[in-house]
Design brief:
The chain is α/β, with parallel strands linked by helices and 331 residues long. It is 49% helix and 15% strand. It is built from twelve helices and eleven strands. It has a five-stranded parallel sheet with strand order 7-8-11-9-10, with helices on one face. The protein has a four-stranded parallel sheet with strand order 5-4-3-6, sandwiched between helices. Strands 1-2 form a two-stranded antiparallel ribbon. The protein starts with a helix and ends with a strand.
């Protein structure tokens, strides 16, 4: 797509979202919750359409030889769609933050001042891979009275569009503005730059993904940014830990879905229980085909157990988010 055409399309989304935000902000809690419940129902009703779109994304990801954990993050099934719908219903049941008085006081001259939670306006959210983020982001924004412009990753573009269309249809059926949920349907990277520069329409932008994405958004953003940065999930096994429980937790946290952001990347083990811990966990990790990158002490314990997929850890292994069947081990 020509860059001017792309920019105009993104600007059009911004204008539409601004109009929708003004209509959504004053809506009652009851109306917003009804919209959320309708979204959940429509998501389930559109399951076949969503799964067909998702199968095309998965097929392309497989052809492009993306890693198995990344494909797992991308893949949807009936159970995952039902879980998304259940999550929407849980958000509907939450207390509405809009209108909540945070603090209030009276000045000596009798002036009453209060600080009250209000919608932000239009929120831009840019994310990668997981299509369920489309639902999570749209639903949280709706609950808080904000319009949202979504831009997902190229790997999940068909899934994202199908999910967003289902949510929009549900919202409209309950009387919410259709354009309170908008999806940028293009995967051009320039779309990120155009969104980040659109401060006349977007009040806040949230990048959710890898370092390159976050740095791009921060460099171009002309509005406030809420971002995370480098972070890892680490499991610590203390000397007083129940080792059987610790083994179950570590194996599950690493291998159940290694491509999600709450999978652990490092296990830190107290030296006093390192030998028995590694003896218990090594065969289980080996059975799951987990590669271990170990510090000298852990390497010594695992080598003695003849662990095959074993390497000496490098300094960067302690700060790497693998999103794969790789585990850094340190004693």
């Amino acid at each position: 797509m020509d860059t001017d055409d792309l920019r105009n399309e993104v600007l059009s989304c911004g204008r539409r979202a601004r109009v929708a935000a003004r209509a959504l902000a004053p809506m009652s809690t009851e109306r917003k919750n009804a919209g959320l419940l309708a979204m959940a129902d429509q998501l389930c009703a559109s399951a076949n359409t969503i799964l067909q779109a998702n199968s095309k994304d998965v097929e392309k990801a497989t052809t492009d030889q993306l890693s198995l954990p990344i494909i797992d993050r991308l893949k949807l099934d009936g159970k995952r769609i039902q879980a998304m719908a259940d999550d929407i219903r849980q958000v509907a049941a939450l207390e509405d933050p809009v209108g909540k008085v945070i603090v209030e006081w009276i000045r000596p001259n009798g002036l009453h001042i209060s600080k009250v939670r209000v919608p932000i306006g239009v929120i831009g959210i840019i994310y990668e891979s997981r299509p369920n983020v489309t639902s999570d982001a749209a639903v949280l924004c709706t609950k808080t009275g904000n319009a949202v412009i979504l831009r997902g990753g190229s790997e999940s573009i068909r899934s994202n569009i199908a999910i967003a269309e289902a949510l929009r249809a549900g919202a409209v059926s309950a009387g919410l503005p259709e354009d309170s949920i908008l999806m940028i349907p293009k995967t051009d990277r320039d779309a990120v730059r155009h969104m980040a520069g659109m401060d006349q329409y977007i009040d806040l932008i949230v990048p959710r993904g890898g370092r390159a994405l976050i740095e791009t958004v921060v460099n171009y953003a002309r509005m406030p940014v809420i971002k995370h940065y480098v972070g890892l999930c680490i499991a610590y096994v203390d000397r007083e830990a129940d080792l059987d429980m610790a083994v179950r937790i570590v194996v599950n946290a690493k291998t159940q879905r290694p491509g999600v952001c709450n999978a652990i990347e490092t296990v830190l083990v107290h030296r006093q229980i390192a030998a028995p811990f590694f003896k218990k966990i090594a065969p289980l990790l080996a059975g799951k085909k987990v590669e271990i990158r170990a510090d000298p002490d852990s390497l010594r314990h695992l080598s003695a157990l003849n662990y095959q997929s074993l390497h000496s850890a490098r300094e960067e292994d302690w700060t790497t988010e693998y999103l794969d069947l790789i585990l850094a081990a340190r004693t």
